Amino acid sequence: MSTIISVFDTTLRDGTQGEGISLSAEDKIKIALKLDTLGVHYIEGGNPGSNSKDIEFFQRVKQLKLQAKITAFGSTRRKGAIAESDANLNRIIESGVQAATLVGKAWDFHVHTALQTTLEENLAMIYDSFRYLSSKGMETIYDAEHFFDGYKNNSEYAIAALKKAEEAGAAWVVLCDTNGGTLPGEIHEIVSRVREQISTPIGIHTHNDCELAVANTLAAVQAGARQIQGTINGYGERCGNANLCSILPNLQLKLGYSCVTDDQLKLLTGTARYVSEIANVNMPVNQPYVGNAAFAHKGGIHVSAILKDSKTYEHIQPELVGNKQRVLVSELAGQSNLLFKAQELNLNLNMENTETRAMIDRIKELEHQGYQFEGADASLELMLREASGDLEEIFTLESFKLLVEKTKDRSVVSEAIVKVKVHGETVYTAAEGNGPVNALDNALRKALYQFYPQIDDMHLSDYKVRVINEKDATAAKVRVLIESTDFSNSWNTVGVSENVIEASWQALVDSIRYALIGKTRSPQSAEAPRERLGLVNH
Amino acid sequence: MSTIISVFDTTLRDGTQGEGISLSAEDKIKIALKLDTLGVHYIEGGNPGSNSKDIEFFQRVKQLKLQAKITAFGSTRRKGAIAESDANLNRIIESGVQAATLVGKAWDFHVHTALQTTLEENLAMIYDSFRYLSSKGMETIYDAEHFFDGYKNNSEYAIAALKKAEEAGAAWVVLCDTNGGTLPGEIHEIVSRVREQISTPIGIHTHNDCELAVANTLAAVQAGARQIQGTINGYGERCGNANLCSILPNLQLKLGYSCVTDDQLKLLTGTARYVSEIANVNMPVNQPYVGNAAFAHKGGIHVSAILKDSKTYEHIQPELVGNKQRVLVSELAGQSNLLFKAQELNLNLNMENTETRAMIDRIKELEHQGYQFEGADASLELMLREASGDLEEIFTLESFKLLVEKTKDRSVVSEAIVKVKVHGETVYTAAEGNGPVNALDNALRKALYQFYPQIDDMHLSDYKVRVINEKDATAAKVRVLIESTDFSNSWNTVGVSENVIEASWQALVDSIRYALIGKTRSPQSAEAPRERLGLVNH
Description:
Strand content of chain A: 15-25%
Oligomer: homodimer
Number of domains of chain A: 3
CATH architecture of the largest domain in chain A: Alpha-Beta Barrel
Helix content of chain A: 40-55%
Number of helices of chain A: 18
Strand order of the largest sheet of chain A: 1-2-3-4-5-6-7-8
CATH class of the largest domain in chain A: Alpha Beta
Largest interface: A-B, 123 and 122 residues
CATH superfamily of the largest domain in chain A: Aldolase class I
Number of strands of chain A: 16
């Protein structure tokens, strides 16, 4: 029976401290659902005392009845104040979470310099805050800020801070390397020493400023820490937090600890890519375990050895973390993956068929341009159905015109004129919108409504644009990702073009085609493929 | 006197195995010059046996008379052949380098599976190859491929391989974790054991597949390794090689080893960014030590502490590695961030002043609407200058019209007509583009060129769009982030509107205003604010 490590995810709180990362309440809900499926034990949702977005998240997440414990974050009470009347502590209680994490100083230098109070008052701030929240029946977690710097500077005081939280009922004391400057050897030694003096279970929270956050987390666990705090893709302030996408497989596949189930570990790559899409941050291709190049082989010698036995140049089987081998000099990998997807959809692709081959090549081309299965399952399904001849034509485009006008001090006006053929009939419509894509969407819906009134059930719920090759941005290829939802489902489509309108049109058309194909199938079979493709958000 | 560690850079050889990395001979020469200034001891230029590009590099680099030793890479002789008649070994000799690195198998499994020969023959291949090159007076380095996997599988054979190279005159035996699957504890233990059996100096070569390449290199050095092999920015196959940009400061600033001089270490950030430019790979903003966000502070509490003493949230002084502190303004931040920013720009914001307070409220309101100034330093600077009355007007918009047309089977056509007033003169221009924003950009440049010919120096280098409130995507507020660059700088601007074109226009206009305001100032003062804002790429 292997030791269980408690996984504490703070992507939604500490992760949002990363430069360029900003998540709406809706984004946070989506990510929380993925994290729960991945099997993390704690999801830190945010700081209810700091902004209203987080309060909305805590209200909405309650209804989801997740397996993971939702935790709220805050600081110990203000100096010279009373815990019971501390606004931020009361916000945490009002948020109705099962667990709360409070950060408190453990470094005497910080107490003097940043907090500008006495060592005694800081200990009282820790004690009062934990006693108050614990008295409300909450599970409380103490993030001992700058613990390692503090221990090196004044070990007695750092330990005293932990003991105060312990006395006041904290369920975990988490040792934080807040500035990310500590080395694995120091971490191992200090965690070992702390264990001799503290009986409360110990957690570890590291930052990547020395590119050692993962190593430091492993060192702490090997020294007896039993909770790991980190974020998906290592998002976080400055150089980021400890990257759970590397820590989980290292602990589970290499060191024999148990964090999530083996099946959940297979969701790691999908989760990492999904979160990077939601955060709209490009994932480095060379990211360990989950990156697109993590198991990609370029060198000719390597490739020939791989074909003999992939163990020759792969430290684990990519499938264990839901990733796959890529051989950059051959397309073998891509094709077998598509065949696998087709099987999932009960489509039989005949590779002898030229249309099929042409479609496969087009899919590979899109993939080559930056298209991602994780990002646009519905578009992939449509292309595969087309490839296998199993796709009805909803409509064909004759032409569209867009007019966008702005005059000084007046806001932009966007109008679209669309000419499409539906069931052999030519339909001509015009509409305006809040933007060109919205105008196109409105005009196209107008044209299709008389044939497919169900189109009213769906709407576009997210729209993202990203430049793929960044040579010359507004003249470069862009990728548009559109998420659509109806009452029960949500699905994602993609468009790629040098023209953002063309790319948006492709994604828009795919989104509508996918929805209406669904409608013409029987309800069950309409749900099925989406379920299998993991398109159902909730 | 601190222990000297020999730094072996393989950016030009193993680094080019990274996905999307391809260097011309000219690129390699440029990078070699930078590496020499940084003070690395060995520069591995490539594999003269594998391609002519590398042969050209070795011919040209000779004339540069660098301090660093130039080394060529190759494999041990072919099985069943004679070293003296091995084409690749002879290419290395012809390349005229002072030192050569030969990779040879140390894992019995690989000898059988990949090489498909006997254990004895592999040992002979090692011995013959090193004897031959050493006999030519070359310094020879043995890269023991898969050493750690080999040692764990058959330690006797792995050691025998090292001994063969040693007998044949190898100056270094480098233990390679080729698949990147080994953990720091194992590395430390195995290197220590090897030291007891091998008297030749030991080197370490790690890969980042477990996100542990840096930790593994440190562990090996602490166990007695005296040469570190790695690449700038950790470029390399799959997840990359050990990142010298993190290893050098860790060894030198944290562990007291001596790799380069303190002055050379200050060149680290510049070198890292220069190499990423030449390789045309975007550097992650959160890259440790050298990234643009490595010392960037976002949280309000952090910022107020930083203003009291940077040691509170920085593990080293950024200047020691040639980087600098940055403060990001965001909804998570307090007023102190804005004050800090204003100080950087030498604008005195008086909080008693009502205009100033109004401006701060406006920035907060804009952030509430979805503006994200942390990703748009230039837009923020423009606002702060406007607030303090220190902003000249470049032009005013009269009107623009955009026409986007698509007809069946023809790609989209985008045309823009722009009417602006510049220095009291009305200018009317039209242009087409790959997309509506590109067309607007082209038309606006046309209008401004006669007044500001310097506008040709700048171009948009990145373009991102995302929906902020996801109620109904194509009718929701969108945020456009634009990155622009000229020959030496890059800056970011933002626009927010329900209309993607309006938002793009705002960001586009800010980007051009920022660039041209710079031009009308004296060169020094034009650079200064960007430098202070951390917008300089290299």
